Amino acid sequence: MTDVNMNFHTRKWVKPEDLNPNHTLFGGRLLQWIDEEAALYAIIQLENPHVVTKFISEINFISAPKQGDIIEIGIVATHFGNTSLTMRCEVRNKLTREPILSIEKIVFVNVDESGKPVPHKKTEITYVKDRL
Fold this sequence. Notes:
Helix content is 18%, strand content 37%. Strands 1, 2, 3, 4, 5 and 6 form a six-stranded antiparallel sheet that branches. The chain has a single domain, classed as Hotdog Thioesterase (Thiol Ester Dehydrase, Chain A, Roll), CATH 3.10.129. 24% of the residues are buried. The chain starts with 6 loop residues before the first strand and ends with a helix.
């Protein structure tokens, strides 16, 4: 059940080095890709390169991609806190649209250069093209 506002910007090709002993995508690799995508999303939304992962809720692995599959990672902001940004994530097969994984909550915190939480003053999703 994909959110209409969810943007699928990142695509990954499942290669041999991404596989587990079952010859499917290693979950840790997928979580690495998701954490990176969520960090980039937070950096762009909060206009600050200094953000940190605070929380990732239950991870629902729905299906296992195989070598050669192309997957896409979707992220959407669901809540703007004072210093935090909460997002939802879905991963799906690019060609079949079959769901692969969902995470209800990923929370990033906006920090200053010394790593202390700082208010970001953002209240809604914005797009770089609208800021220029």
